[in-house]
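Title: Comparing notes on inverse folding

I've been comparing how different people in this forum approach sequence design from structure. To keep things fair, I'm posting one structure and asking everyone to reply with a full sequence. Here's the target:
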């Protein structure tokens, strides 16, 4: 009797179910097991936190400072920077130009090492380099995410519509994307900014538009196979509108490679807009940005090479962080890898 009962219990419970290898939970579990992805997440978490603090101090406090209540409390733009770092505008007597980092020297101060007052030294106007790197993080993270978001949203729509309908719609949309893709990237962005304005907003829009073909071609290749699936045919047979099929079924089931590409593209766009700032087409003075700092430092590389090293390291660390996350997501979302 006991044997029969145990067999019945075993039959009811059934064999052990295999672990699902799809879905958000499985993807997150695989990313957590990847040390490179965790390292990238750590880097980006730190950079994002710094960017949020800089946003509050540079934007939110500037808005709150216009109200008398907050102004009486001493809240104004860059109050944190003025509290922690020397501001050469408000305190020109204590501003020293091209100071070396702490404990190090340069040609201008061969016998006077840097101090903790300016741990990374000062620039050609006596401004603290660490402070400008700190606030430049807000620009880097913002332009990377916003420009990639513009390209991803528009590129997904173009690629999904082209792949779903096919025919002349596919030809028209993809030939337009290929025409855009054939124009040299920097030439296209610089022409766009020359026509509309040389500021950070148009830099993000220009880079986003120039990157649309990358996402359009990627998602189109996925949609060509997804549109033939049975659940798409069932949705058509049930009378679901094409717009709803594209937005609710086609794009979500083609999104995995787009997410990986978007993560990698953020780092690429940070590099691109840093290059535009270096050429004078990105953030305009006195807004701190890493590309602009590199541009200002090129005249002082011999007397103070540290001026150009720090923004380069900041760009390198941020871009590598996003690339590590992208590599981890690619491995987690790739069904050919036996995890």
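Reply #1:
Here's my take.
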């Amino acid at each position: 009797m006991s044997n029969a009962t145990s067999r019945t219990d075993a039959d009811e419970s059934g064999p052990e179910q295999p672990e699902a290898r799809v879905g958000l939970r499985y993807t997150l579990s695989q990313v957590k097991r990847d040390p490179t992805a965790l390292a990238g997440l750590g880097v980006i978490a730190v950079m994002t936190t710094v960017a949020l603090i800089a946003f509050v101090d540079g934007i939110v406090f500037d808005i709150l400072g216009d109200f008398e209540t907050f102004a009486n409390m001493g809240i104004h733009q860059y109050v944190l920077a003025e509290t922690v770092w020397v501001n050469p505008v408000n305190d020109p007597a204590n501003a020293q130009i091209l100071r070396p980092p702490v404990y190090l020297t340069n040609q201008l101060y061969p016998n006077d090492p840097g101090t903790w007052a300016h741990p990374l030294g000062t620039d050609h106007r006596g401004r603290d380099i660490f402070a400008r790197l700190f606030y430049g993080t807000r620009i880097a993270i913002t332009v990377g995410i916003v420009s990639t978001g513009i390209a991803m949203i528009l590129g997904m729509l173009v690629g999904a519509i082209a792949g779903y309908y096919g025919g002349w719609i596919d030809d028209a949309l993809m030939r337009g994307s290929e025409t855009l893709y054939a124009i040299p990237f920097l030439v296209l962005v610089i022409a766009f900014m020359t026509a509309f304005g040389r500021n950070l907003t148009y830099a993000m829009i220009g880079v986003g538009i120039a990157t649309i073909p990358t996402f359009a071609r990627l998602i189109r290749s996925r949609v060509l196979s997804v549109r033939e699936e049975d659940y798409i045919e069932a949705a058509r047979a049930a009378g679901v509108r094409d717009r709803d099929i594209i937005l609710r079924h086609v794009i979500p089931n083609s999104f995995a490679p787009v997410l990986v590409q978007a993560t990698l593209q953020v780092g690429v766009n940070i590099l691109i807009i840093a290059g535009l700032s270096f050429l004078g087409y990105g953030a305009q003075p006195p807004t701190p940005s890493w590309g602009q700092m590199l541009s200002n430092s090129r005249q002082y590389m011999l007397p103070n090479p540290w001026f150009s090293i720090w923004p380069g390291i900041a760009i390198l660390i941020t871009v590598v962080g996003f690339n590590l996350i992208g590599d981890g997501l690619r491995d987690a979302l790739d069904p050919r890898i036996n995890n």
